[in-house]
Design goal:
single chain, about 90 residues, mainly alpha, about 0% strand, flat
Length: about 90
């Protein structure tokens, strides 16, 4: 985790500190914070889910990330997320 998320946590800390200062575009700042929190959350979720699935499915668990984007519900979720609804 150290090499993958240190920059993201640093950028999140900088963005959170900028809330206190006079930033011209607060909406853009909150969108950046939301994006960084989503990256951190889904990284952690993937790590936990991957460990659990490997414990139960062994090497078949490597097929999950390959097959997940093929799911219609997943593509609908991505569409809603990119449109800003979620």
């Amino acid at each position: 985790m150290q090499t993958h998320l240190t920059g993201t946590f640093t950028d999140l800390g900088i963005d959170l500190a900028q809330i206190k200062t006079d930033v011209q575009d607060q909406q853009q700042l909150f969108l950046r914070i939301r994006l960084r929190l989503a990256i951190i959350f889904f990284f952690m979720l993937g790590a936990l889910l991957g460990a659990y699935l490997f414990g139960t499915l062994n090497f078949i668990s490597f097929l999950v990330p390959v097959l997940l984007p093929c799911s219609p519900r997943f593509t609908t979720f991505l569409d809603l997320m990119f449109k800003g609804i979620i």
